[in-house]
Amino acid sequence: MSSPRSVPAATKVLSDASLRHGAWIDCDGRQKTFAIPPQEFQYTSYASEFYVAQQDIRDIAPLSNHIQLYCDNQGVYFIIRNQRTAHPARNPRVEELFNSLLSFIDNNDIHLSISHVPSQCNPADHISRRLPIHSDCMQAERLLSSDIVQSFLK
């Protein structure tokens, strides 16, 4: 009789984008902000949010291959949950990035789940709108420890 293979606990990551900047914060308080490429993904909030979600997954993958992503954009939530885009012709760059992300997930044995979280419960929403993030560390810690955010992270 073999012992059951244990599944590692998921690294929980909250994701958000403004049109120009993306951010993620995990349940341990690690956070990152970064610029979104202007020509490719700054044309809609959907494109920006998808770019950020895939970047978050790529950033977290070296730390954990079991990722629980929280996103406040319903379009991004549905595309990742259903593993297909609804209108690839309207968003060819997103479709290309999505296919690359699926390959990355498959090639790196990543177990990904995604949940929708309202913007007001997403501390990454706050950090994606401001740079640099250093002054926001205390605010992010307070948001992460709030009851509303913790109910999503459980």
Description:
With 154 residues, the protein is α/β, with parallel strands linked by helices. The model is unreliable at 131-138 (pLDDT under 50). The chain has a single domain (11-153), classed as Nucleotidyltransferase, domain 5, CATH 3.30.420.10. The chain is globular. It has 7 helices and 5 strands, in the order E-E-E-H-H-E-H-H-E-H-H-H.
Q: What's the quick description here?
A:
The protein is an alpha/beta fold. The protein has seven helices and five strands; from the N terminus they run βββααβααβααα.
Number of helices: 7
What percent of residues adopt helix (DSSP H or I)? Answer: 40-55%
Average pLDDT value?
A: 80
Major sheet: 5 strands, mixed
SSE blueprint:
Blueprint: E1 11-17, E2 21-26, E3 31-35, H1 38-41, H2 45-60, E4 66-71, H3 74-82, H4 92-107, E5 111-116, H5 123-128, H6 137-145, H7 147-153
Parallel strand pairs: 1-4, 4-5
Antiparallel strand pairs: 1-2, 2-3
